[in-house]
Amino acid sequence: CARVKELGNAERDEKRARSAANADRVRSLVREAQTWTRAAEVAAHFFAARSLLRQAMDLLRAKFFLHDDRRECWSIWNEASGHLASRRNETREIAYEGLEREIADLAPLADHGDTFEAVTRLKALQGEIRGADLSRDQRQWLRARLGELWIVVIRRIEARKSERARVREERTRRCVARHDGQEDLVDRLAEWRDRHEALIGRLRDEADELEGQIATAWNESWAERARGWVQAKYAKIHGLEHRNKEIEGRLLDIRPRLDR
């Protein structure tokens, strides 16, 4: 009986030690997650905290714990998880409100300002939205509002193209061929540049949409292919921007001669 009692005590001691060690590991992971949460400013910080909490949860599900140890660990885990969600929602709301103000400030320029400057600022704002830590609904709303501004600017560009076409037709009707067709060349170059700008805008929207899908994708194989599609779109954007720089250079060279 003494031997049986001794073995029982040893087994209980071993279980207590095993439970305590597992509980210490969970506490350590939760503390580290809380440190990341308190200092979090960007999405990567929140991902790091969430990853640590997932590791702690895996331990709670897979390892041995005595009742009191398990209850304590679940309690601190739930508290840390709630704090993480609250903190992330808070930073997302701040980012969302800031971007919302930037879009509102950009609206007058899109409506009646310089279209080249408007396109430049729209591209920059697209990048900010793409890189910001936002909820799906927040990102979709901002992209939708930005898309409305893109439509306004593109319509103004198209209207300008239509006006240039009208002027060209009038000039052709009057048989005015000044400077050996240099004016026509300027119009064609400007039209190509505007067409490129419109295509760049569409490609950026498509790339932004893919990146949003990649961020929430569960299928890594699809996500890897999608990253390749995004890279291809940015390569095309880079090529179009390079062509527009060449066009601007040619326009700067031709226009002074037309004014002589």
**H/E series:** HHHHHHH
Rg calculated over all Cα atoms:
30 Å
Average pLDDT taken over every residue: 84
Described by the principal axes of the CA atoms, the overall outline is elongated
Strand content is under 5%
Helix content: over 70%
DSSP summary, beta strand count: 0
Helix segment tally: 7
The SS-based structural class is: mainly alpha
Describe the sheet with the most strands. Answer: none
Between the first and last Cα atoms, what is the distance in angstroms?
A: 116 Å
Show unreliable segments: none
Architecture overview:
This protein is mainly α. Helices cover 89% and strands 0% of the residues. Helix 3 runs antiparallel to helix 4 and helix 5 runs antiparallel to helix 6. The mean pLDDT is 84.
Quick synopsis:
Helix content is 89%, strand content 0%. The N and C termini lie far apart (116 Å). By secondary structure, the protein is mainly α.
Secondary structure elements and their pairing?
Blueprint: H1 2-39, H2 43-62, H3 67-112, H4 115-131, H5 136-173, H6 182-215, H7 220-258
Helix pairs in contact: 1-2, 1-3, 2-3, 3-4, 3-5, 4-5, 4-6, 5-6, 6-7
Structural key phrases:
elongated, mainly alpha, 260 residues, 7 helices
